[in-house]
């Protein structure tokens, strides 16, 4: 499948999806949203994919937001459709069942920050800038930003970032729990690749159980979350990977997981 706005590279068990509109700082227009939805749907279905890396082309931006030139002419109904399409994509990424790592350099603003927050792990260059500047356009975040920012960083930070629209640097984003790790720009690729390869070698069914338990647990009571964890834990005993992992430990060798 040829994409107009994405570049896809598959190496080992790692699929890298790069948004490729660098002249527009990788802004998310409707076509790019549709292509990302297709690319992530394929990544979810393909057993050869154990980890997805999401990146933006060029040095200047991961993604500088939803495409303002498209939104400028939208009616309320088109705005609603755009918001729903963006939210569906973010939920698809969050519930992919496989770890998704965001590679963050330059600007991650508006829809770019919302996209990063839908990923499970975020590695940022120390030159990266984050923010929800929609208020400066007379808008509000529409791809889940008010909700994921609230859940990831708390109410004070969510209100501050969305109401001021002011960008924050990578260090502040790290302190707020919005990024997993901050590295020098020249160390970004190695940090992302090392993490992706580590996750690609781990037990995929266990990873799926962890993603499910943590994501569902954030949305429910502690008792329901604990029950969900018990069910996912029990299910792990039905897998070949669990026998392999525990046997490899006892035999003092490295485990090889097949996702069965
Ligand atoms: N939507 C559409 N186009 C965008 C865009 C967006 N969100 N962000 C950047 N672009 C385009 C610019 O219009 C420009 O296109 P042009 O060369 O055809 O004029 C190109 O990308 C480069 O951006 P430019 O503004 O010239 O770069 P800069 O380095 O001066 O500024 C930013 C970078 C990120 C500060 C600035 O582009 C910006 O504020 N972007 C919008 C951020 C935003 O509000 N995002 C939330 C949207 S809901």
**CATH architecture term of the largest domain:** Alpha-Beta Complex
Helix fraction by DSSP (H/I, runs of at least 4): 40-55%
The stretches of 5 or more residues where confidence is low (pLDDT under 50) are: none
Bound molecules: coenzyme A
Distance between the termini: 28 Å
Number of helices: 11
**In what order do the strands lie side by side in the largest sheet?**
1-2-3-5-7-10
Number of DSSP E strands = 10
**Main sheet specs:** 6 strands, mixed
CATH topology-level fold name of the largest domain: 2-enoyl-CoA Hydratase, Chain A, domain 1
- Round the mean pLDDT to the nearest integer and report it: 97
Strand content: 15-25%
How do the helices and strands line up, and which of them pair or pack?
Blueprint: E1 6-11, E2 14-19, H1 30-45, E3 51-56, E4 61-63, H2 68-71, H3 76-94, E5 100-104, E6 107-109, H4 111-118, E7 121-125, E8 129-131, H5 145-153, H6 155-164, E9 168-169, H7 170-175, E10 181-183, H8 188-200, H9 204-217, H10 222-236, H11 240-250
Helix pairs in contact: 1-3, 3-4, 4-5, 5-6, 9-10
The structure holds coenzyme A.
């Amino acid at each position: 499948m040829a994409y107009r706005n994405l570049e896809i590279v598959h190496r080992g068990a790692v699929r890298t999806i790069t948004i490729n509109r660098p002249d527009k700082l990788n802004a998310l227009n409707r076509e790019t949203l549709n292509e990302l939805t297709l690319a992530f749907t394929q990544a979810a279905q393909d057993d050869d994919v154990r980890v997805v890396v999401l990146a933006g082309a060029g040095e200047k931006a991961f993604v500088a937001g939803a495409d303002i030139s498209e939104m400028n002419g939208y009616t309320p109904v088109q705005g609603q459709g755009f918001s729903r399409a963006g939210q569906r994509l973010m939920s698809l990424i969050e519930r992919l069942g496989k770890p998704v790592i965001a590679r963050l350099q330059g600007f991650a603003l508006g829809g770019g920050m919302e996209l990063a927050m839908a990923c499970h792990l975020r590695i940022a260059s120390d030159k990266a800038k984050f923010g929800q500047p929609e208020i400066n356009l007379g808008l509000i975040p529409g791809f889940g930003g008010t909700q994921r920012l609230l859940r990831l960083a708390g109410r004070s930070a969510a209100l501050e970032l969305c109401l001021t629209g002011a960008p924050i640097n990578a260090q502040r984003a790290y302190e707020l729990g919005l990024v997993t790790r901050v590295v020098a720009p020249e160390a970004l690729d190695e940090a992302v690749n090392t993490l992706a390869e580590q996750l690609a070698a781990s037990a995929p069914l266990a990873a799926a159980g962890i993603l499910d338990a943590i994501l569902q647990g954030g949305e429910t009571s502690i008792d329901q979350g604990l029950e969900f964890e018990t069910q996912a834990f029990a299910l792990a005993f039905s897998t070949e990977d669990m026998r392999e992992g525990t046997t490899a430990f006892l035999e003092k060798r490295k485990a090889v997981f097949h996702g069965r």
